[in-house]
Amino acid sequence: LRYLTVVVGGFLVDISISWTTHEVLGLDLVLAAAIGFLVAMSLSYFAHEYWTFRGQESGYSTARLIKFAGASGFTLGTRLLLVWLSAPLEPLPFGSLLRLILAFGGSLVVGFLVNRLLVFGARAQTRE
Length: 128
Prior knowledge:
Layout: H1 2-23, H2 29-52, H3 62-85, H4 95-119, H5 122-127
């Protein structure tokens, strides 16, 4: 539930920045999606570290931050691939928004699994 709360907050930041930079500033949707994602990722690391996956070892960790950035890069790759693959939906009403939401859903699943298993999980912290 905490992961979902952080992700929904990140989603609101992400989708607001992505859609606004695409619609208002005219940036390519893939670039706009990358910018929104990176801003939300930066905020999400600290929320996950201190709230979502808090434990006895919670606290700033350069190793976890690096792993989180790597995991986020993988998640971003998933997101951008899904935005690109959903290009045929663009002509629909609110097509760009629909594409962003679909890509968000797919990357949500990938992001949770990668973060839970490789970044913030007990075994991941033991390897630090």
